[in-house]
Design a protein that fits this description.
Shape: globular
Strand order of the largest sheet: 3-2-1-4-5-6
Helix content: 40-55%
Largest sheet: 6 strands, parallel
CATH topology of the largest domain: Rossmann fold
Strand content: 5-15%
CATH class of the largest domain: Alpha Beta
Distance between the termini: 63 Å
Length: 442
């Protein structure tokens, strides 16, 4: 099947590469000439494990190509995906759909025959119908269907999530549209272990937002439990395991930390909140999640300063991890964007290292004045404290003896609980973590 993927961001590029690996003829389209030129030369614009090899293999086999021409890219395509960005709109937090509707207009102009047009971008309820109206108004005689097919890719494991998903959700109104999607996902549709859920477009669109809001709620809930644990002397990791073993709750997304970030949860909870308010059914629970998570990220700097004796003025802090999670270079709404500036505002100098996001971090004005270290130990040289913000694997086995020889102070503030409290303390460090006994001293 010939497939056109409009947008070569995270979702578009991963989806296009995986569809081509299924055997489809895929062209990924983007107006950014520099990005397309880079992709043609084998340069991948995002950090995602395994994606470079997957792209290279399918380009070599002639199944994956890149273009800046939408008209050429959609010619003869039976499935046309809209995978453009839907960032939070300034002022109200609603999803900005301008890129989606612009793509719909250009698709309408370029259609040469029947096509199933698939919204892969995360969009509010009702967007599919609006996309259909845009195309129908522009090309009344065109043959097409509009289908919703939300993505559920986790950054850092997106290829595995695409090829072995928990489920595939398709919102379609016609048998023809459903048939195209079945053939598109044939390798998964034939696999009885992959649940396929066919719904209306509205249900499909809401499933995506509801799923992300629910996961954001789980993270926020366990973070609030962590705060209680610190006061009453309980261990949040025991609490998390104790409730996660309940089949009705599940263990995923119950790791306490500095708050959620990334490209999905922050903007999707905001967009769902806006949709709920617009239709007259505001969600107080979603609103609370947004409010509590925002406040938590800001409080983490206070936790660091408290662990340093109540003042950061004139002190040096080594920060390990800037991305919102490991195995990605994504900085969007990362807790580090709140924590690091607050520490510098409190008078500290900050030296930071992240295995993947150093170049991306330099685009953020919030980090102006921060020193970019060459590795974890370089970040900790002469530091009064070590702060772990992102749980990269390479931070899980730090050489404490080497750290002690490099650091001026002995404070480790672990905002991801990647160490057992006794490990740093046994090596002579004052160790502070999240939701566990207040302080483990050397």
């Amino acid at each position: 099947m010939r497939v056109a993927m409009i947008g070569t961001g995270y979702v578009g590029l991963v989806s296009g590469a995986c569809f081509s690996d299924f055997g489809h003829d895929v062209v990924c389209i983007d107006k950014d000439h520099a990005k397309i030129d880079a992709l043609k030369n084998g340069v991948i614009p995002i950090y995602e494990p395994g994606l470079d090899a997957l792209v290279a293999e399918n380009v070599k086999k002639g199944r994956l190509s890149f273009s800046t021409s939408l008209a050429e890219g959609v010619k003869g395509a039976e499935a046309i995906f809209i995978a453009v960005g839907t960032p939070s709109r300034r002022g109200d937090g609603h999803a900005d759909l301008s890129y989606v509707f612009k793509a719909a207009e250009e698709i309408a102009d370029a259609l040469t025959g029947y096509a199933t047009i698939v919204t892969k971008s995360t969009v509010p309820v009702g967007t599919g119908r609006k996309v259909e109206d845009v195309i129908r108004t522009r090309r009344p005689s065109a043959e097409f269907d509009v289908v919703s097919n939300p993505e559920f890719l986790r950054e850092g494991s997106a290829i595995e999530d695409f090829k072995r998903p928990d489920r595939v959700v398709v919102g379609a109104e016609t048998d023809r549209g459903r048939d195209v999607m079945r053939r598109l996902y044939r390798p998964l549709h034939l696999n009885e272990k992959t649940p396929f859920l066919f719904t209306t477009r509205e249900s499909s669109e809401l499933i995506k937002y509801a799923a992300n809001a629910f996961l954001a709620m789980k993270i926020t809930f366990i973070n609030e439990m962590a705060d209680i644990c610190e006061v009453v002397g309980a261990d949040v990791q025991d609490v998390s395991r104790g409730i996660g073993l309940d089949g009705r709750i599940g263990s995923k997304f119950l790791n306490a930390g500095p708050g959620y970030g990334g490209s999905c949860f922050p903007k999707d909870t905001l967009a769902l909140d806006q949709t709920a308010q617009q239709v007259g059914t505001p969600s107080q629970l979603v609103q609370a999640v947004i409010r509590v998570n925002g406040a938590r990220k800001k409080r983490m700097a206070e936790k660091v300063i408290k662990a340093m004796g109540g003042s950061a003025k004139g002190k040096k802090i080594g920060v390990l991890g800037l991305a919102f999670k490991p195995n990605t270079d994504d900085m969007r709404d990362s807790p580090s964007l709140d924590i690091v500036p607050a520490l510098m505002a409190a008078g500290a100098s900050v030296s930071a290292f992240d295995p993947a996001s150093m170049k991306e971090a330099q685009k953020h004005a919030e980090f102006n004045g921060m020193h970019y270290a060459s590795d974890a130990y370089d970040a900790l040289k002469d530091a009064d404290a070590c702060v772990i913000i992102t749980e990269w694997n390479e931070f899980r086995a730090l050489d404490f003896a080497r750290m002690a020889s490099l650091m001026r102070g002995r404070a480790i503030i672990d905002l991801r609980n990647i160490y057992a409290p006794g490990e740093p303390a046994g090596a002579g460090f004052d160790y502070v973590s999240i939701g566990r006994p207040a302080r483990t001293k050397r």
